[in-house]
Amino acid sequence: MTQPHVLAFATQKGGAGKSTIGTHMASALCYYYGYKVAMVDCDYPQNSLHAYRLEEQNRLQSEAPFQARLLKQGIPPYPVIISSVEKAVSSIEGLFEQDYDFILVDTPGTVNVVGLPELLRLVDYIFLPIEPDKGSIASTMSYMGILGQFVQSRDEDSNLLGFYAFWNKFVKSEKKGIYDKTEELFQEKGLPLLKSRVELLMTYKENRSTMFPLPERDLNRLGLGQLILEILTLVVGEGAVTPSGKTIAFTAPAVESAPGA
Fold it and tell me: Within a 10 A sphere around the Cβ of 144, how many other Cβ atoms?
């Protein structure tokens, strides 16, 4: 039995979008790419992923069109498991026995949580959304510094292979200098930053779903499609074929000029 890829989304700043992006990624991996996926929600007390699923389960009970859409899709919803950080290791190890391809973990918005180091030992990759503001950038760099120390001192029982930041709530009209300067700083500090940029559009938040994928055109328009492909390229490799028959091929987005460049 092949061990699943365990991916975590993490920040030290509330509202950065990790739960929303994690949901979109899980749904795309499951319903679009055909992978067997499970989600573990450790983000107490918000537990946003669990709240999304409960809302959709209620719609299944009350809305016939919602039921019909799920039946037409023909793919059972992936499980969303609520867990504390302290119990997350046990929850994830239990999923190892169920032949999943991916386990996605939504972590709490702080590193000062009992059990987090043990949880991170089970994670293969960590992805950190950053927003174009000084507080988010500083917080992300601080978190990545902690993760860097963790990777360097990791023992043979740790699975953590790497961690990557990526731009979320990207605004094309924003002064380009904040992006260029941040990327230069990340490079100077040796902190990895993905090339994908997820745009600040309400579509990706309003249409998040644990039971259906965002349409491919919307994934690509928002930059989410490129982010998912870039992550898949890291995790399973360029040119790999997904269970639904799609070939993984990532093309870095073109960098557009912006006011204030």
Answer: 23
State the Cα–Cα distance between residues 138 and 250, nearest whole angstrom.
28
C-alpha distances (whole Å) from 199 to each of 9, 21, 93, 133 are 17, 11, 35, 14
Least confident range from 18-32, 39-53, 206-220: namely 39-53
User: How far apart are the C-alpha atoms of 73 and 94, rounded to whole Å?
Assistant: 28
C-alpha 99: how far from chain center: 20
∠ Cα 189 17 253 (to 5°)? 60
The CA radius of gyration of the chain, in Å to the nearest whole number, is: 18
Dihedrals phi, psi of 11, to nearest 5 degrees: -150, 170
pTM to 2 decimal places: 0.90
Location of structure tokens 């950080």: 85
**Tell me, what amino acid is at 93?**
E
